[in-house]
Design goal:
alpha+beta, two-stranded antiparallel sheet, two-stranded antiparallel ribbon, 19% strand, binds zinc ion
Amino acid sequence: MLKCYDCMEEGKDNEAVSICIVCGKGLCLDHTKIMELPIWTGKYPMPVKMLEKGLPRVMCNYCITNTLVDAFD
Ligand SMILES: [Zn+2]
Ligand SMILES: [Zn+2]
């Protein structure tokens, strides 16, 4: 079974319930962050309509702090 990567680093042993869409590591419920990111329109790889509600994206803490920083600058 897939284990939570963040728990492993803390010396704990938890089953992963989801996977970070950015780095692909397994995450337990405690380490899963759901981000409601807006859907971009007309960009590669395919043109998508703007949804009223952003798609929930599962991300880990690391990726949130390291990928979203730029967006809020
Ligand atoms: Zn965890
Ligand atoms: Zn990640």
